[in-house]
Amino acid sequence: MAIQRSGKRIGILGAGPSGLCMAQFLRADCEIVERNHGVGGHAGSFFKEGYTFDYGPHIMFSKNKAVLDFMVGSLGTNVMQCRRNNRISFKGRLVRYPFENDLGALGPEDNFRCTWDFLNNPYRTQFKKPKNLEEWLLSVFGKGICEAYLFPYNLKVWNLPVDRLSMLWADRIPRPTPETILRAALGFKTEGYLHQLFYHYPKRGGYQAISQAFAEKVKPVRFGYEVKSVRRLGGGKWEITDGKAPMAFDELVSTIPVHELLKVAKFEVPKRVREAVRGLIVNPMYVVSLGVRGEDREKMTAIYFPEAEFLVNRVSFPATFSGENAPAGHHSIQAEITCRAGSKVWKMSDGDILEHVIAGLEKRGLVKRESIVLTDVKRSKYAYVVYDSDYQKNARIVREWFWRQGIRLVGRFSYFEYVNVDGVVERAMEIAGRMNGSPVKL
Questions:
Q1: 3-state DSSP call for residue 253?
Q2: How many CB atoms neighbour CB 382 within 10 A?
Q3: Is 243 left (phi over 0), alpha (psi -120 to 50) or beta?
């Protein structure tokens, strides 16, 4: 992908996948600054005592073949393909994912109710034009599946009542057919969410290997540069500084959380824009990583937990993604807990969180305490972008205003959208195309 550069100089704040992609796609001289000392950002990895963990699980899949090929191709031979092996914890059983494709694994009463409510669904007529995610889920799946899994799980992850979540989520959820539901209820093996049934993952280096590969195609990143100020200069230019080394640019691309950008903005931001930023909700997350002695015979990729009494919403198994992620004779488990900023859960100590996770996993037969040889607890202030009912209005105000100023917002917490890295690549292509004046071709 050869790009002819213009004379324009563009500053890129952040060396995660979005910033690195923008540097590849833009026809300009780009300088990337990053406050940390490595690339990857939220999609990075850390290494401890022979284990490789991501800052929350990431895998590669996409409905966009060109984007997937771009990501996989960037890794060269350092990539492998795997088949999804996900489960859902439900009343002491592990049901295959997605829930509606394994109704036969439920007890008879739950199986009947979920199947009957799908086939005899009054909400299909009542909510022909659903106004929120709750109404959409009821109209598509029926009350049984919603109350058994979809409602409690979504409440747990997003920490908002489902009737306050935007319809945007509907685009990510396939609609099952009556035939699929009946086959699942009778115990036939069916698969759902086929676009993610097979996924790719780096053999070595964790998910961060993708960002490392992207970084090799751009100018060296300036690490250890934490932006303390962003201000206007004459002639439409911008200046950023870490308090020591000011840098001037014609335009800025910001991939840092838009809430943090607002804190360092030394220029006037209208009240309506500030209010819109405050209205954008992002949930923080604990990531609890465990190194475990012994072989993992099940080789599951993830388990989802809708039950309210267990704070964990998902566990993943990094050594299933790649055997290189754990020392020989060991495997690993990573648990995620999402919550609201400032909540009681977020104020818990790391020690209490760790004990809660281990006790919950042990109770469910997923780990033996005496086999755990490594523990790690990390907190991520920015993790899950929440699509509440005001999301689209607030996001539009923020994106449009910053664009008019000459600051391009890109990335999960800057453009503010809940996307995986394939979505980040697509968004970077779109925004770089607008800035270049012509589409980006991979």
A1: strand
A2: 18
A3: left
CA dihedral 429, 430, 432, 438 (to 10 degrees): 100
Residue 121's contacts (CB-CB under 8 Å, 6 or more residues apart) are 138, 139, 141, 142, 143
In degrees and rounded to multiples of 5, residue 36 shows phi and psi of: -80, -175
Residues 240 and 219: their CA atoms lie apart, in Å, by 18
Contact residues for 378 (Cβ-Cβ < 8 A; gap 6+): 46, 55, 286, 287, 289
Give the global pTM.
Answer: 0.94
Please tell me the least confidently modeled range out of 163-177, 233-247, 367-381. 163-177
What b/e sequence results for 221-260 when a residue is b if at least 16 CB atoms lie within 10 Å of its CB, and e otherwise? beeebebeebeeeeeeebbbbbeeeebebbbbbbbbbbbb
Alpha helices in 169-310 (DSSP H): 178-185, 208-215, 258-264, 271-279
**For residues 112 and 12, what is the distance between their CA atoms, to the nearest angstrom?**
54
Model confidence at 235, pLDDT cuts 50, 70, 90, reads confident
Q: What is the dihedral angle through the alpha carbons of 118, 145, 142, 136, rounded to the nearest 10 degrees?
A: -130
For position 382, what pLDDT does the model report?
97
DSSP at 164? G
Contact 92, 365 (CB under 8 A): no
Helix (H) or strand (E) run with residue 337 in it: strand 330-338
Length of the chain: 442
Task: Determine phi and psi for 51, rounding to 5 degrees.
Answer: -100, 150
| Cis amide bond preceding 57, omega within 30 | no
Provide mean pLDDT across the span 252-259: 98
d(Cα 103, Cα 413) in Å, to the nearest integer? 36
Give me the torsion for CA of 349, 352, 354, 356, rounded to 10°. Answer: -140
**CA 66 to CA 64: how far, in whole Å?**
6
Q: Is 369 exposed, middle or buried (0-12, 13-18, 19+ CB in 10 A)?
A: exposed
In whole angstroms, what is the distance from residue 208 CA to residue 15 CA? 11
274-284 b/e (C-beta count within 10 Å ≥ 16 → b):
eebbeebbbbb
